[in-house]
Amino acid sequence: MKDFDDIKEWIHLVITNAWIQKWDKYLIAQRSKTDPYKPGYRWLVGWKLDYKEWYDILQNNVKKEIQEEVWIEVDNIKLIGNFMTTTKNTIIYTTFHCLWKSGEARALEDTEDIKWLNLEELKLFDEPNIFKEFLPYIS
């Protein structure tokens, strides 16, 4: 039986991630440098869908991933966009906006570093800036 945690073996994959807002700033995480998928890449908190849930599966998954990766709780989770990429596998990205509820953000599982950035800092972000695509939805 194939290991379902190996991303290379998936025919399709669903990713949930979130813009986590705390006052006027948003949390950006840097993936671990040993991560098999985009090591060191700075992006939103989240990861692949865990198929153990069955109700509000996308919202519950993003909430769980945020807790595991940066140790904070969020609420008011709303879907703001989704897109699909296709190479050898099909990947569906779902992006949410949510509000920080409690906890002190810190880099944990699969996360190298975190930063809270305001909208102006996001516009000037030095990585390939897909953030610009979502700025109208969060501001």
How would you summarize this macromolecular structure in one to three sentences?
With 139 residues, this protein is of the alpha+beta class. Helices cover 19% and strands 42% of the residues.
Largest sheet: 7 strands, mixed
CA(first)-CA(last) distance: 45 Å
Order of helices and strands: EEEEHEEEHH
> How confident overall, as mean pLDDT?
85
Tell me the name of the CATH homologous superfamily.
Answer: Nucleoside Triphosphate Pyrophosphohydrolase
Give helix % range. 10-25%
Number of strand segments? 7
Low-pLDDT stretches are none
CATH A-level architecture:
Alpha-Beta Complex
Notable traits:
139 residues, alpha+beta, Nucleoside Triphosphate Pyrophosphohydrolase, seven-stranded mixed β-sheet, 3 helices, 19% helix
Describe the protein in words.
The protein contains three helices and seven strands, in the order E-E-E-E-H-E-E-E-H-H. The chain has a single domain (11-138), classed as Nucleoside Triphosphate Pyrophosphohydrolase, CATH 3.90.79.10. With 139 residues, it is α+β, with helices and mostly antiparallel strands. A hairpin with a 3-residue loop joins strand 5 (73-86) and strand 6 (90-102). Strands 1, 2, 3, 4, 5, 6 and 7 form a seven-stranded mixed β-sheet that branches. The radius of gyration is 15 Å and the shape is globular. It is 19% helix and 42% strand.
